[in-house]
Every structure is written in structure tokens, then in C-alpha cells.
Amino acid sequence: MSKGRPKISRADEENQSMALFDESIPSVSGRGKTAKRVYEGVENEEAQESSSSESSEEEEDAVKKLMSELRAADADLASSDSVSSSIEEDDEESGNGENSSDAESDSDMNDDSNMEDDSEYIEESEKGESKDDTESGLARRKRTADLSGEEESLDDSAEESGSADELSLAESSLEEAERDTVPLKDVPTKKRKKALDDAVDPDYLADSDKKNSKPKSLVKETIKADDPFTEHFEKDMEESAISLVLDRKLWKTDKIQVEQLGHVTYSHSSSAGELRLPTETTSLPSLGVRSRLFNLVGKTLRLHCNRSKDADREPSLTPEQRQLFCIINQYKDLYNPRQTFENMEDYRLVYCLHALNHILKTRLRVTLNSEEKWSAERKKTDVDVEYRDQGLTRPKVLILAPFKESARRILNIFESLLMTKKKSFVTNKKRFTEEFSPLEDASIDPKKPEDYVRMFDGNTDDCFRLGVQLSKSGMKLYANFYKADVLICSPLGLRMILGAEGDEKQDYDFMSSIEVLIMDQADVFLMQNWDHVLHLLSLLHVQPKGSHDTDFSRIRMWTLNGHAKHYRQTIVQSSVYDPHLAAIFAKHCSNYAGEVRLQPLPSTGSICHITSAMPLIFQRFHSVSYSSLPDDRFDYFTREVLPQFTDKQRAGTLIYIPSYYDYVRIRNYLAKHKHETSLVCEYASDKAIRRAKKKFFTKETQFMLYTERVHFFRRMQLRKIRHLIFYSLPTYPQFFSDMCNMYKTGGQADASCTVLFSNQDAYKLSVCVGTERTKHMVNAKKNVFMFVTGDD
């Protein structure tokens, strides 16, 4: 017997070895403690087996196998020479039978570890591990991970695609781990998988107590090749096709009868496809609407369109809404002059759904291409594909609205389409509510007409701009324009940023990549300042002055070639048809997908609403073209009409003038010829207006010039009007009856009304006198027509 320290007990020897073993194992998720509990449980089991003569051979082999593994790990990780020497001396003093049993367990452990190495995937990138102890170290870590239930394995498919690793919990290979004598509370006995999207959705956690729990299945969204988004924006136009788009004389015009929409005019070049219309079975998913949106369409209809559930089912889009959405979903320009207060929210929901769907598709395309690109870079493979999916700047949708109340309603629809109850947030919502909610001291005179009350209900501030940035679970308001996805602005608010030519501070780079332009209530822009709209239209798709952190390798080729304006979609919605609005498509739009125009609804004319008894005299003058119309009208007015009312006996003549430029022109003419005139326009102060009205009522002035814009914003009731002259037909048909009904307050027996119109004013004439009368008045040989109105 060799000399050394006194022989220690087997229990003390194993405790010392276990202490070294615990120090060598990283303390992650309590692996050392778990291994120690397992070891102690095995020691107790060994004691029971040695005292029992009826132990099975299977249990004895399992104990020997585990003890051999622990001893091998102790030998590899021993850091103290004294402890190692003492263990060797104790081993020599033990009998040959013990050595032989240890040798058998060592061989069993090696065989078992080799089998496990062949059947399991093990990470080989552990730091701080030398080559000498690779086999023993891997076997030890693998064995410990099996016992603690936290082993990580790499999946071949995940490794190839570069996606997140799939984590699995390996089953314990020891039969004794399932026995009640071994306290394995922390060791799972069934294999479970952790969802791949745990990094994205931290709320989903694998619960060890749920035996039948199933991992979440990942549904990878894609954009189909026949999706309208793909067909429109991923098509590179050749120069020859661009030249055909620019020459509108080569465009074809198709007139289509569409149910619910009436006559539709579809103008397009040879590069555009056919106009596809929905059927009764057409659904939003079949049109390419993202699931995030169409699941909440029913709720939005209930909240904002006054729709109710049908037999406990969410409401769906009306046939008219579905047809409109199908048209704009093909990225064709649309001019819709059918907007009313009754259907305004229905139409607003349609274009909001289209705008959000476009943003989500744009982000999805960028995300999918980025994943493919990163995957190729990780594999270090050469890919000849160019990922062109971005513009020069981030904003893609620009919505122009006249008032803050309109913007508030648009944002409410956005929130309803995007937000869920559980996971949703709107950043800066409190600030938005404070700035865009109706003013407390704002009140409308109940005596005003109904259309005036509905038009100016809410916050009527016309100077605002708002950037909206979409995220996975919500949206951020007041985002920087270069980080926003959607811009909601008024023409005046946007003009404050764009500036004018010669200004030191001008910023319009964010408008270089607008792909969808929406003008809501565009007729109101005519009443505000139409020059602001024309100015911002001229700055669309102008080459930016700065790079703005743009990845030029991802910019679409048609953007770099300066063809972005041919891919932009323009949607104009108004309550009236106006030549200024129609001219937008001819001068500022060249969408290669084509243009769709809805025809106004047939009208009986606002002349039916005139209650004052008076003769209406319509005088027609000829004009060669719309561009020469202002000069032709002025010449006819000064030559044929005005001389009839210059006599002092015909004082009290009010001249209604829709255009401010015509107002200035006539004002200067009357001042030049020294005619006393009262001036009432939108730029006049309240004091000036009161003074002008007083002079007109007392007949101190011969004429009163009254602009359409001042009537739009004020709706004055004027008294003592003897003669009314419509220099041009009103933009809104109800203004015609409003002005004629003012004769009630005058009580003049010799009252008269003169209306000037030309062959270019067919629509405005139709909404005043009716469609059938207009056909006769435009094509008749005579130029003067008279109607008599009154209660009878």
C-alpha cells in the first residue's frame, strides 16, 4: 500500500470531484446545480443497488455508465495536482474488481458518447476550448445539457437560409431519468420545439408544464406575380413606350357602362392593360389586400360608415365601393366628381384602404428582397439579381385635404384599419387630438344652409401638415417627412415648406418618390388657393438636392431614368365637375396605366329650388377654346351686358364673379370708367365689408362686386338687390339658387337675373337648369333663353 493521505470515504471523494466539476461548468440556467442534483440522486441509487441483492442488470449498467462519465469529466477538468494524486492513490488501494468495473463503465461511456455525437448536432464554435479535450468537453457539455433540458441544436434548413436557429430540447437517453428515485424535475422528458418567431413575438414562450403545447407556425407573406402592385411598379418601360404615353393624341378612349357607377370613360395608351371590373364573387384577398387590413374592414365600416352587422356578421364593402377599389387597385388615375356628404366616408374608406395596402406591399417587397440578399451574402454565393425596390426618398403616399377635420377623419380610418385591441399604439396621439379636434369656442349659425353647416363642421384650420410612419403594431404621428410613409397635408401647409422660387429655404426632396397622390374634396381647393395646388404639382418628382441616406443600389431603374411621374397614380375626388380639376390629368399626370373618369350624375338643376318670382335670362356667347374663354367672356360682358345697367335708374346691381382674377379685371374696368362700386371679396376685412354693404343698400354705389369665395366662407344674406348678374355660372349649383332666393328680402317688382354662359360651360349649366334643358340651350340657334321662376 502506497503512502499518502489517510484513505477518505467514497462519499467524500465524490464530493471533492463534484466540486471541481461544478466549477468547470458555466453557470447558465443553473446547469451545475442540476448536474449536482442528478449526481446525488445517482449516488443514493447506487447505495440502494449495493444493499439490494435483487437489482436488475439494466439499472446497474446505467449507474456505472453515469459514474464513468462523471469520473472522466473530473479527470479532464482537474485543476489541482494534489487532489489528482490523492484520487490516484485511492484508486490503487481499491480492489481489482473495482478497477475492472470502472474500465467497463469507461468503455460504455465512450461508446455511448460516440453514438450521441453521430445522432446530434453540436455547436463547434465554443470559445476557450482546446483541441485536446474536444471529445471529452463536448461529451460533458452535451450530457449536461441533456440533463438540464437546455441543449441547442442547429437545423440544416435554418442554417442554409440564414434564418433564426431552431431550438430543441433533447430527450434524456437514460432510462433512470424516468424513475421516481431520481429527482429530475428540471429535466423534460419530451422533445419540444421553440417557435422560430420568438425573437419577433416575445409573448410566446415554451411552457414546460404544457405537454400538448404546439409551436406557432410561420406563414411567410409574399406578393404574387399577378398582383397589381407587381404588374405596375416592377415593369420597366422602354423609351418607345414612354413616348406613346406622353403623346395623349395617341391614347384610346373607351366608354364603359358600369353598374353602380354609370358611364365610365377609360383613356389609355397602348402600354396599359384592360380595365378589370369586379364580379359578385370578388373578395378583397383576391384583389391583393393584405390580411392585416381586410380583417378589420368590417369594423371600420361600422365605426365610420354607419353600417350595421348583418346576422352577426361584419358588414362588407358595397358594390360601389368594391368597384371603385378595384379600379384604383390597378393603379389607374381616377377622377371622381360624385362625392357628396352622404357618401364621403364611403369613398374615403376606399382610398385609405388602397393607400395603406400600397404601403404594406412596398415594405413587404423591401423586406423579402433584403432577406434574399442577406441570405446570399451569408452563403457567399454570387447572385445576378438586382434588388430594385425603393425610391429616392421614403414617402410614397401624399394625401391633400382641405381642413384639419378632414385629416382627423382620415387618421381615424387609418387607426381603425391598422389597430387591434391587444397590440396597437399610436405615437403622439394626444398631441394630434389636441391640435385636430374641434375648437371649443367654434359655433355655426343654425340659420346657415345645411351644406354650409356640414362643410364647416369641426376644425376648419386649413394650414397643417402631418407625417405618418407605419410600424408592425401601430403608427407614429408627426414623423419626420423623410422617415414617414404617408403625408397628410393641406395645400397651404405644404406650401409653407415648399416655399417659392427665390426663397432661401426650400425643401421639396421628400416629394421626389410619391407613388400615390390623393386629393380629397378637391373642389374646396378651388375656394382656398388653387395656385398652391398647381405649385406643389410642379414640384413632384423633381431631382432631390441631397441623398438623404438613400441606398442607390436599391433604387428602381425607372426612377433613376426620370420616369417616376409615369408610374404615379393620381386620385381626385370632388363634389362637382370642374375644368380646373380635369386639367390636372392633362397637364400634370401621365400615368402609363391609364385614366378613368366617372361621369357626373344626371341633375334636374338647382333652378327647381328657386322660390323667388323673377325672370331668368340666359345669354350665350361663343368661345373657340377653353383657354380663350376668359377674354371672350370679358369682351361680351363689357360690350353687350354692362351698358344696360350703367343708368342711375338701375342702381342696386350685384355682379356675382366666381374667379378672383375676373374680379380684379372688372374692378379695374369699373374704376377706370368711374362707376361707383362696392367691393366684397374674401380678402376684405369685416369693417370694409360692412361699409360696402351699407353703401350698396343706400344706393350710394351703382354696383357691388361679390366673389364666389366670400360667399363660400360667409354665406351672407344681402338685401335690396334689384338686378343680379352672374358673370359666370357658379362652381356649386346650390349657390345659384341661394343668390336668386335673396330677392325675397328685397321685394323688388322689377327684379331681374342675367346669366352668361358659353358652349364651354355645359356641365355648370346642366347642374343649374338640368341636363335635358342644357342639351337644348347648347345646340340651339338662338343665344338668349328666358325662364320664369316662383312659388307658382
In the sheet with the most strands, the strands line up as: 1-2-11-3-10-9-4-8-6-7-5
Mean of pLDDT: 78
Assign the structural class, choosing from mainly alpha, mainly beta, alpha/beta, alpha+beta, or little secondary structure. alpha/beta
Indicate the low-confidence ranges by residue numbers: 21-43, 45-55, 78-219
Oligomer: single chain
How far is the N terminus from the C terminus? Answer: 138 Å
Strand content: 5-15%
Number of helices: 29
Secondary-structure blueprint of this entry?
Blueprint: H1 10-24, H2 31-51, H3 57-77, H4 81-93, H5 96-119, H6 134-148, H7 156-161, H8 228-233, H9 239-246, E1 252-258, E2 262-268, H10 291-294, H11 297-304, H12 319-329, E3 333-336, H13 344-379, E4 397-400, H14 404-418, E5 425-427, H15 429-436, H16 450-455, E6 465-470, E7 474-477, E8 486-489, H17 491-498, E9 516-519, H18 522-528, H19 530-538, H20 557-560, E10 569-573, H21 579-588, E11 595-598, E12 614-621, H22 629-641, E13 653-657, H23 660-672, E14 677-680, H24 686-697, E15 703-707, H25 708-714, E16 723-726, H26 733-740, H27 743-746, E17 752-758, H28 762-769, H29 771-779, E18 784-789
Parallel strand pairs: 3-10, 3-11, 4-8, 4-9, 5-7, 9-10, 12-17, 13-15, 13-16, 14-15, 16-17
Antiparallel strand pairs: 1-2, 2-11, 6-7, 6-8, 12-18
Helix pairs in contact: 1-2, 1-3, 2-3, 2-6, 3-5, 11-13, 11-14, 12-13, 13-14, 17-19, 28-29
